[in-house]
Amino acid sequence: MSGNVRARRPASPPPGLPHTAPTSHNYPPAVSRKSHLDADERREAVSKGYSTSRRHHGFGGLQITSGEWKLLAVVLMVATCVRLFRISKPNSVVFDEVHFGKFAGRYIKTRYFVDVHPPLAKLLITLAAFLFGFDGDFDFKDIGKVFENTPYVAMRMVPATLGVATVPLSYLTLRALDCRATTALLASLFITFENGLVTQSRHILLDSPLVFFTALTTFFFVGFANEDKQEPFTEEWWTWLVLTGLSLGAVVSCKWVGLFTIATVGVCTVLQLWLLLGDLRVPARLWMKHFLARALCLIVVPILFYMTMFQLHFLILGSSGEGDAFMSSEFRQTLGHGMKDTYADIGIGSEVSIRHLNTQGGYLHSHVHNYPGGSGQQQITLYPHRDENNLWRILNATVDNYPQYDYENLPMEFIKTGSRIKLRHITTDKALHSHEVRPPVSDVDFQNEVSGYGMAGFVGDLNDDWVVEIEKGDRSDKESGKRLRTLRTYFKLRHLMTGCYLFSHKVKLPEWGFEQQEVTCNKNAVKENSLWYIETAEKHPQLPANAPKVNYKIPGFLSKFWELQHVMWTTNAGLTDRHLYDSRPSTWPRLRRGINFWVKDHRQIYLIGNPFIWWSSTAAVAVYVVVRGFLILRAKRGYRDFDNSKVVKYDSLCGFLFVGWALHYLPFFLMGRQLFLHHYFPALYFAILLTCAVFDLVTSTLRPRVRLQIAAVLIIIAILNFSKFSPLAYGDPWTKKKCSSAQWVKTWDFACSEFLDDTSQYYALTVPTPNKTIPVATIGGEPGGRAPMVVEDKLAQDPGHPPEQDGQSTVLPNGGAEPGRDVFAKDDQKDSKSLTAAGADTAPPEKAISVVTGEQATVASDQGTEAKAGDGTGTTSGAATSATSAAEKKLNTEVDPVIPPSGAGSQSSEKVVDTETKSSAEEVEPEGLRKPEGPLGHEEAIADQIAHELYPEARDEP
Question: What is the tens place of the pLDDT at every residue in 513-536?
């Protein structure tokens, strides 16, 4: 019977047409009749671009059974319990909650701030805080500060929830990479019981959202790659590709470390396109379609997502805040802190405010406080806020004997390149001055001090003279390149006598200078830091009522976006200060040291990883590198290991995870900024997946039951390690003995000596009162006496008897917990408006005397009053004020010779003296050797300068 049946042949094409395979129009071409192929042959077909039937292909390559979903639900419950266990403890601020909790308050208050990290993770935390009623009043100021009226648990739930969600993502990612269910289970439990990831996800920090979106991006890209192998340009293919792009935008919107995730996906995408380019079955038009689809979804979509987050950031932060000072004046116009229109024309006699162009545009500023050293004259600083102490009057300095130009009656005289001017401080009547005296901080030869010098009625000397050099003007205003115009002209000020340029940089003065920015006169000035412009100008007496006015241009979104990116980039690169618990990348894979997060009441939260998981992942990376290198050497010797489909599969799998680890870890070696152990977490995620992939390879030949037993042993070891160090993750009670037994590495510096000897002692401790209480005492109440009265106990508040501190704070041997540095944080008190001349009624009148001898200046001062005046407060006691009242009857003046006899520059200093001190100075100094008081005349100053140029040796004579 069978011999009579003729085998059916495929239909022939019509005559005249070439023979074409039925599936040649598809890419990759489907392989027919695959049911006869074994597993290795199917993998080989897939590796060559062929695919299996859609019937056996799950969405994104996932083929999860119902039993696996149930198992994954159990793992998710375990992860939830581990992450959320006692998440309300501690009820005080932990580590960088100081910063990121504070930012949530700024968002709710809509007060503008600047941070080095993009806004997505902070916005998610703020959303939770807002929904649970946070009013933004709690300041998160210090580690250990007890929360009050703050939904901190809801805020901590955001990173905790994302930390929990990372667990199933690790499972699904390995299953999509064609690993066994046992391997995926091992990875999910490793992520669950990794102490470092647990600790980081339980607090208001950004690393848990970062790791989550890194894991999400990896999962989406693996799903896309599986769909791409099956059949491109389907709905499923586009879905996975678009989700990958959105996730890329999310990960880089949490932290810029997300750029490493973009690099990982980018490298793999370039490899895909490279292989497609070498596939002759793919025409050029189809390859271009692949390229454009990936460019749209993996470049354009992430950029749009990232920019959208900043648009939300700008929309929410619509009012002025602590971040204003770091942005340009144009930017500040959009923060409800706008400037009124100001007059455009500038001339001799104009009252102006002058801004520095480069360093966040601080104002040239002075106030009634003096330098504690150097000349002792009035401080000149750069101040970031608008203040009446920023106002200066431009005067001419071009005529002998300094007759002032009558700007109130004569025609207006404009200021051009080469104009010689003086700048007179409005509120203190001091001239902007420089001389051969080293600055208080930048004490180098090419830097001179800039000070405020002079007094009412004193026209000044040559060291007050500056020459204007116009650098450039605005293209839309041709006159601004020829003469000074408000907001339109950038110029430099060259000191007439020394040739140095008025200069400022990011160096801050100490507390006596209120940490304002230093202003110097630099002989080797960088042009960018020596450029200034006039921001405001009051109406000049000679200007008509309808004189033209100008203002800043209101920037659009793109201008604001790029400016903020520049501020974030330059500041991030400048975070080079050391931190007590920072570390370098070479120590991370070894888990050499952790981070102290919080310490209080003999408890501690210390970021440390699970040693078993951490070191296993490092070993897996090393094993892959060694084995891959060995296979390359074998291939050079003619061995054909890569013809084996199993080798190809695991090489691709482990290679992908290794690239992810390397691109998230190695770039940190190029950074000189401050780094911490938590920067390794995204790389750790890839290292853990690589560990499980190696496990999948090693156990691939074992029976499922044996493989499961080995995985169970590894999981038990991981859980035991987690339990060993869990008190450091949860801040639970711990004993000295258990702590010491857990210090397996001598560089693990958690403070065992501060824990109690027995856990029962923790429950015997009295719960401290969160808020400080004022000590009180009872007066009276004796029988037959006066009624009892409760008053403050002054003795208990005496500095010699400090009150008992709240709680029992643990003091670590090498320092307590401290947050990472926030360079944008501002101290409102140190940055407050300085005292004006009119408002400084609590300060004594400034009295100074400078006595100049033929060879050396001798100055005597009242030491007690000088100490009081130099503390930077601007106030004195009533006794000090009365002590100086007699001195007010005498004429006290300042003197600043052009080049003093000592050769150290102008040595005149402003000292507060009284009558007795002045008399003692006269007794010590013979009358014949003392020059008369008062400023040097113009001719005398020049003669004195020439004398010292001719006889420089006289400067060193005693």
Answer: 898 999 999 988 888 889 999 999
